[in-house]
Amino acid sequence: MCVKGAACKFSHDPASVAQTIINQENWETPTCWYYEKGMCSKATGCPFQHVGDVPQGKMPRTEREEPDDDIYTAVKVALTAAVVIEGENNVQRMRQKISKYCHDSLQGLMKVAGPAKALIDEYADSLFSKIYAGFGDRPWLQQMDFLLVLDAAVKELLPKPVMTTVSFEDIETFIFQAHDRALDEQRCLPITWDTVQQVVQGPKTRKRVYAAVEIGRKAAVNKEDVFGAEDFARTWITTALIALRKDCGGYPEQVLDTTTATNMFVSLFEGGALPEARMAEGWPAVTGWKPFVQEVVKEAYTPAVQASPTGHIPIPRATFAAAYPPFGE
Predict the structure, then answer these.
(1) Last-in-domain residue among 187, 209, 224
(2) pLDDT at residue 118 in the model
(3) Full domain range(s) for residue 267
(4) What sign does the dihedral 266-272-278-279 (CA atoms) show?
(5) DSSP per residue over 229-278, as a string?
(6) pLDDT of res. 64
(7) 222 and 309 co-located in one domain
(8) Is residue 1 in some structural domain?
(9) What pLDDT sits at residue 284?
């Protein structure tokens, strides 16, 4: 039936045509992968075999391979327990988000030139604030161990010239300390906020009191010679009320009377806002927090308790130490 005659580019030799037919019969056309998945859109125009009666119409999905790097691997390990609760698909998206948080936390750092400890602390604050902002509503978040995540991110992302100024052992210590401090702060932030909202009246007053309370807690966290929950609490209360006194022109009682201040700090301490490490070192378990807080608040409201020009904050002791000896004595 060929009408091209001698101009046809194919052979008209009967033996060659017969061999071609035999070869075609022996050749097996590959099956269509898309048809098997229900995603082939070419119908009868598809060059591959459509085996069986598989309904078509599914949208093609892009299958992503998980990254193979230290940060993602650390995140994957940290979220292992969450798979049971959230499911693999949800947790995979969480891994990608937290890995992105690790990189995003580099933005805006003020200590990029060091020292190493300050840079690690600042990076940890940025990272964990993002993690808690993104997943703070998850009840399982407190059970996740993010130490490996911080460790991998610090060693991979922070500037090497700064990190190499200290020993490997020091870096490990700084990472461990930054992890515990930053996580503890994120754990306590909602407790502090909720307590101030419940005890203090008025939005403007709440804002001023909350700012002072946060200043006080940071001062207690950063004070190197603090030991025990009682010592931490004393520093927190005194520094917070000094900050409030400064904000109120010397009269903190105008926005927060001593009774309300006492109730607020008792609620904070009994509500879990103190660092777990300090609580483990001892606290006034026999008497409870109220007598201690009443005495420290009373001392802090006296005009003599003020910050010095150098910024050093004296912590009044009075005779309270005799009435409440350190834990275990």
Answers:
(1) 187
(2) 94
(3) 200-329
(4) positive
(5) HHHHHHHHHHHHHHHHHHHTTT-GGGTS-HHHHHHHHHHHHHTT-S-HHH
(6) 53
(7) yes
(8) no
(9) 82
Determine the 3-state secondary structure of 96 from DSSP: helix
d(CA 245, CA 237): 12
In three-state secondary structure terms, 284 is coil
* 193 found inside a domain: no
Same domain, 105 and 49: no
Q: For the whole model, what pTM was predicted?
A: 0.63
Q: Are 164 and 127 in contact (CB under 8 A)?
A: no
Structure tokens at 68: 């193979």
- Residue 159 carries which side chain, given as an amino acid letter? P
d(CA 148, CA 133): 20
pLDDT value for 102: 93
pLDDT value, residue 187: 86
Counted domains in the chain: 3
**Which residues does 182 contact at the CB level (< 8 Å), separation at least 6?**
121, 124, 125, 127, 128
Q: How far apart are CA 154 and CA 171, in angstroms?
A: 9
**Cα 241 to Cα 260: distance, rounded to the nearest angstrom:** 12
What lies within 8 Å, CB to CB, of 69 at 6+ separation is 156
Instruction: Give pLDDT tens digits for 45-63.
Output: 887 778 888 888 766 544 4
Shared domain for 24 and 110, answered yes or no, is no
Looking at residue 168, what is its pLDDT? 94
pLDDT of residue 46: 80
Q: How many helices (H) and strands (E) does the chain have?
A: 15, 0
DSSP structure class, residue 61: -
44 and 71 co-located in one domain: no
Domain identity same for 71 and 165: yes
Instruction: Give the angle 174-225-142 at the CA atoms, nearest 5°.
Output: 50
Residues of the chain with pLDDT under 70: 1-31, 33, 58-66, 303-329
Express each pLDDT in 296-325 by its tens digit: 999 988 865 444 433 444 444 443 343 334
Q: Are 272 and 316 in contact (CB under 8 A)?
A: no
Q: Are residues 289 and 207 in the same domain?
A: yes
